[in-house]
Design a protein that fits this description.
The chain is of the alpha+beta class. It has 17 helices and 23 strands.
Amino acid sequence: MTAIRKPAVAGMFYPADPGELGEMVGNCLTVARSAENAMVPKAIIAPHAGFIYSGAIAASAYVRLEPARATITRVVLIGPSHRVALKGLALPGSEAFATPFGTVQVDAASVAALAALPRVTVMQAAHADEHSLAVHLPFLQRILDDFTLVPLVAGDATANEVAEVPEMLWGGLETLIVISSDLSHYHDYEMASAWMRRPRKPSRRSTASASAMTTPVAVFRSEASLRWRGAGASRPPPSISGIPAIPRGRATGSWAMAPMSSADNSSIEVLGGMLRRNVRVLQKIAGDSIQGGLVTGKALTVDPGDYAAELRRHAASFITLRIGVALRGCTGSAYAHQPLVSDVAENGFAAAFTDSRFKPLGAEEAAAIRIEISVLTAPEPMRFSSEDDLLAQIVPNRDGLILTAGWKRGLFLPQVWETLPEAHEFLRQLKIKAEIDPDVWPRGVRVERFAAVKAAAADAADSG
């Protein structure tokens, strides 16, 4: 067995220098974060062209994994063979895969399980110079924490034969399925553009196109398969790599799709149970961050490793401070980007000392505050044709809203319905909070909704 599979396409499909690679991947992810967000996907389909051509499209799928950074510990990665003809699917016979960011261990237990499938073999040559898997590793390394890899190159195999792999290794929230594929190869620009609008079965006149689409993307393109898994699908915007580096007669279509698992790890039921089990722990973290901030002027630094696994998962929180019934500070995160315990510590400090509506909390007030913790589900984009259409879809007393217009953004938690019970006034005040004219509906406005679970308020003195 070969110990480490070398980074064969570094310097070609992506930079070989770790710093330059980090900057390129970071830029792609930054752009993707500004687009619409969705639930954490169970599986993604992402392109495998060079990063300058399709990196932004790949990032639009990978960025959706950020809330599960600490949850996903195994990645099943399947891509088509470009250089070696083979029957079925091939494992690499390696213990690890290398990139300029470091190495990723191959999941030995999963590899052993796949040995039972008749169409899976070990073929080092099929992996040695194959780029369809390698280009995904830098994104996975940047997005996820510790994970193991199950890498397979697919050759001459039916969709059912390929589907046996995710069927065997589907697992739970710990497993991510990544399907590597460009949508089309070497069609003219107009034909590639048409494919972006309506993906369809490829013509056999292009071997590369046929391979990229039918092996192994067909596994997840079937609506019946998605229903069978209890899943839906979300597709980030497509792209054509018809930039000056590529003749318009040889365009490559890049397309990303994210089949969604029905086991949403940010559902209101899951978050509610987690918060009930850990409310005192989280209130103590927020309270300690506030008390420590009075002395040090800094938020409490926590080690997520000291806490239960469900508190190490990435989640978005808001901390609301009250003295009596009066608001005394409220700050939080719209999107999950770090372990929940870290988010609570930062937002507890911020609610006390950096909420611009209030002066920094003093020691006398700190003794009287009550701490309220809210944990948010993943925001979901809303589809609407007008402001009236949006108002008709909003559910009072349930929906929190994030409204974005250009660089302006406003967020209301669901508890704001307690003081603004009418949907029209709720939305009007949200526009005011976002510094948008309340009597105007801006062009290009985006609205996302979310739910939240809230812990019962506790006296700061009792939070420890």
